[in-house]
Amino acid sequence: MSGAERRQLTRHNLRTPLRFRSTGLAADKSEHFTEALNISRGGFYFASSAPLQVGAPIEVTLRMPKEVTGSQTEEIHCTARVVHVRNEAYGDGRIGFGAEIVNYSSVPVQERWMS
Length: 115
Fold this sequence. Notes:
This protein has one helix at 66-69, and strands at 16-22, 32-40, 43-48, 57-64, 74-85, 95-106. The chain has 115 residues and is mainly beta. It has one domain (16-111): Electron Transport, Fmn-binding Protein, Chain A (Pnp Oxidase, Chain A).
């Protein structure tokens, strides 16, 4: 495709906290904390210094805003895969990544983070 918009779900330019861990075989298994810079029901865009590549599977916990859920803010745990890597680094050296949500579930109350 020649840069045409492929998203089928509304993308919201909202920042929301997320934490993730790469789950690939040779991946760095440490947990990373950042925020989604935009989000939809089907995916999100975030910046990180983690060494991720297109196709990389990740486990993510994030706050899904009410603008996305249509009702109330939800904490979700999901598996996702990196589908886009921004070629230019941000001023702080982080790289931007687009991720597609593969599946998700609500996070039990005791596992939610405080804010």
